[in-house]
Write a structure and sequence with these properties.
CATH architecture of the largest domain: 3-Layer(aba) Sandwich
Organism: Enterococcus larvae
Strand order of the largest sheet: 1-12-11-10-13-14
Number of strands: 15
Helix content: 40-55%
InterPro entries: Ald_DH/histidinol_DH, Histidinol_DH_CS, Histidinol_DH_monofunct, Hstdl_DH
Largest sheet: 6 strands, parallel
Oligomer: single chain
EC number: 1.1.1.23
Distance between the termini: 82 Å
Cofactor: Zn(2+)
Keywords: Amino-acid biosynthesis, Coiled coil, Histidine biosynthesis, Metal-binding, NAD, Oxidoreductase, Zinc
Radius of gyration: 26 Å
Number of helices: 17
Length: about 425
């Protein structure tokens, strides 16, 4: 792990340098992704089969996975796993139902009605990543808020493999209520969802995390469809004081480091003793970790121990980092909530480890990364609805404000705007 210390500004300056240095060759990735999207647009399903052979080393007979295959995967799933997924589903639903918003109308002035309509999207696409691990929890996290919002149809895409899509992913799709599942991944899956093919229907919005090509493809199709966010590698920040348990902190940092060699971890503390103990604990815990190679590379290349001069600087630095996951392992952590401005998901206290949110608390684990928690929010029900404004004026109500509207329109040089109101009273003015 790399150590940083000094003034708040010196520390933030070093982190900014790292942010620019870790950028991938964006132009090369952008060009490769655009080529894939263009090919899917022009060749449709044929391009999807070709990319499955090229990228996934898989010869597919069909793009869509049948309901029989999904049902069979569910039946074969161990009862204990079913129970855990159902428990997670229950908690996700109970949490996200509180995010629902409703229509409103007001009539504060005589002759005037204003309102807002909340309408669910008709069809959304959910990307579930494959690769080095299977993520049934991501199926639940992406699909259930859409279902709560009232989305008519949820389409799921996930990368195939020579062994097929993992049964646990298909079982999770059934538990979450996915309408259709397609075994296609990568930028080509995003293109298919955005533009449609003979087999895969076009959607209104695409959600879910993926690799750099998936993220780049989402960025390129935005505008044709909506997207949730452009997610980068996973990350965690831990704020800890001298009373924190170094073994707990080390375990939590490694829980994110094992995701990806590019995953980032941050420990921000004002206790050098604690920092040294955490570093020793990480080295010891790595020895028996099954995904040691991935986690170790992440820790060596993308992890920091930051020594701050006090509590105020600790929070200021972490607010600038704006981590995807933020743990507060400090005395009386609840009282520190008002000091947190930027974080995707916040975990308070020694016994609220980040995996609690990943799997079972019901809060969403699709979160803004790479500092975007400064302006993005976790995935929620609000991502699957759109809002329409409503206005109604009687003739009498419009008469009261017609002069103001016409004045403002002419100040903006928009004469037709002014006349559009005035023509309604032309006869009275004669």
């Amino acid at each position: 792990m790399r150590w940083l210390s000094g003034t708040r500004q010196e520390i933030l300056s070093e982190l900014d340098k790292e942010k620019y240095m870790r950028k991938a060759d964006d132009q090369q990735i952008e060009a490769a992704t655009k080529e894939i999207i263009d090919n899917v647009v022009s060749s449709g399903d044929r391009a999807l089969f070709e990319y499955s052979r090229k990228f996934d080393q898989t010869e597919l007979d069909e793009l869509e996975i049948s309901q029989d295959a999904i049902n069979q995967a569910y039946q074969q799933l161990e009862d204990s796993v079913k129970t855990a997924l159902e428990k997670a589903k229950e908690n996700i639903i109970s949490y996200h139902k509180k995010q629902k918003q409703y229509d409103f109308m007001d009539s504060e002035k005589s002759g005037v009605i204003r309102g807002q309509l909340v309408r669910p999207l008709e069809r959304v696409g959910v990307y579930v990543p494959g690769g080095t691990a299977a993520y049934p929890s991501s199926v639940l996290m992406n699909v259930l808020p859409a279902k709560i919002a009232g989305v008519d149809e949820v389409i799921m895409v996930t990368p195939p493999s020579p062994e097929g899509v993992p049964s646990i992913i298909l079982a999770a799709a059934k538990i979450a209520g996915v309408d259709r599942v397609f075994q296609v991944g990568g930028a080509q899956a995003i293109a298919a969802l955005a533009y449609g093919t003979a087999t895969i229907p076009k959607v209104d919005k695409i959600v879910g995390p993926g690799n750099i090509y998936v993220a780049t493809a989402k960025k390129q199709v935005f505008g044709t469809v909506g997207i949730d966010m452009i997610a980068g590698p996973s990350e965690i920040g831990v704020l800890a004081d001298a009373q924190a348990d170094p073994a707990f902190i080390a375990a939590d940092l490694l829980s994110q480091a094992e995701h990806d060699v590019l995953a980032r971890t941050f420990l921000v503390t004002d206790s050098k003793r604690l920092a040294e103990e955490v570093e020793r604990e990480i080295a010891e815990q790595l020895i028996t970790l099954p995904r040691k190679e991935i986690a170790e590379r992440s820790i060596v290349d993308h992890s920091w121990i930051i020594l701050a001069s006090g509590t105020t600087d600790m929070f200021d630095i972490m607010n600038e980092i704006a981590p995807e996951h933020l743990e507060v392992q400090m005395e009386d952590p609840m009282s520190r909530l008002h000091d947190i401005r930027n974080a995707g998901s916040i975990f308070l206290g020694a016994y609220t480890s980040e995996p609690v949110g990943d799997y079972l608390s019901g809060t969403n684990h699709v979160l803004p990364t790479s500092g975007t928690a400064k302006f993005y929010s976790p995935l929620g029900v609000y991502d699957f609805v759109k809002y329409s404004q409503v206005s109604y004026y009687t003739k009498e109500a419009l008469a009261e404000v017609q002069a103001d509207i016409a004045l403002l329109a002419r100040k903006e040089g928009l004469e037709a705007h002014a006349r559009a109101v005035e023509y309604r009273f032309k006869e009275e003015d004669k």
